[in-house]
Amino acid sequence: MNQNLADELVTMMAEDQRLLQYLFDSGELPSESYHPRMKVLHEQNAFRLKEIIHAHGWPGISLVGEQAAKAAWLVVQHSVSDPEFMGECVALLEDAVAREDVAGWQLAFLQDRVCTLSGQPQHYGTQFDIDENGWPTPFPIEDSATVNERRARLGLNSIEERQEQMTEQERKRRANIEQTS
Predict the structure, then answer these.
(1) Is the dihedral of CA 179, 174, 176, 78 positive or negative?
(2) Binning pLDDT at 50, 70 and 90, where does residue 100 land?
(3) Residue range 48-60: average pLDDT?
(4) Torsions phi, psi of 27, nearest 5?
(5) In angstroms, how far is CA 167 from the centroid of its own chain?
(6) What distance in Å separates the CA atoms of residue 2 and residue 132, rounded to the nearest whole number?
(7) How far apart are CA 42 and CA 65, in angstroms?
(8) Is 97 strand, coil or helix?
(9) CA distances to 5, 104, 176 from 126, in Å
C-alpha cells in the first residue's frame, strides 16, 4: 500500500468536509450557486486526483486502502465543474468494481451523478431532489422497475428503504429547526 498517497487523499477528503461543514455552520450554504470557496477546493482536488490517476491508475483499495479509496471517490464526486473527468472516472470505477478494488456503491453514486448532471435518467437511484413540499424524491430513474436489482448488485439497499432514510433525515432536520426557533 502507498501510505503517502493514502494520507494525501484522506487529507483532501477531510479538507473538503471541513470546508463544507464550515460553510453550512456559517449559513453560507446551501446557496443557489456553486460556492466559490468550494469550487476552488474541488478544482484543486480534481487536478491532483488527475495527476494521481495518470501516475497510478484509479487509487483503489489495493493501492491506498479503503478510506483513501473512498476519499478518491469523494474528490471525483465533487468534481462537478469537470463533467468530462467525472465521466472518465465512471469507466475507471467500473473496472475497479469488477476487480473488487472499490466498493460498488461508489460506482453507483458517481454514475448517477454524471447522468443527473447531464439531464439523463440515473441508473441506481442514488441522487435525490426535493418535491414541492421540500421532501426528498429521487431524480428520474432509467428502467425503474429493475432499479432494486441493480442497487443490490452494488451492495445498496432498496430505493424504497433509501427514500425512507432520506425522508427521516429531513424530518429530523425540520424538528431541529423547530426546536431552535
Answers:
(1) negative
(2) very high
(3) 97
(4) 85, 5
(5) 19
(6) 47
(7) 22
(8) helix
(9) 28, 12, 25
The model's pLDDT over 61-85, given as tens digits with 9 standing for 90+, comes to 999 999 999 999 999 999 999 999 9
Q: What is the pLDDT of residues 141-181, one digit of tens each?
A: 999 999 999 999 999 999 999 999 999 998 888 888 777 76
pLDDT reported for residue 150: 96
Angle between helices 3-25 and 36-56 (to 10 degrees): 170
Dihedral (C-alpha) 173, 147, 73, 91: value to the nearest 10 degrees? -160
| Residues with Cβ within 8 Å of residue 114, at least 6 apart in sequence | 83, 86, 87, 90
Mutual angle of helices 36-56 and 83-98, in 10-degree steps: 50
Rounded CA gap, 21 and 3, in Å? 27
SS3 content of the chain, % helix, strand, coil (to 5): 70, 5, 30
CA 79 to chain centre: 10
Cα–Cα distances (Å) from 12 to 37, 99, 140, 151, in that order, read 14, 25, 31, 28
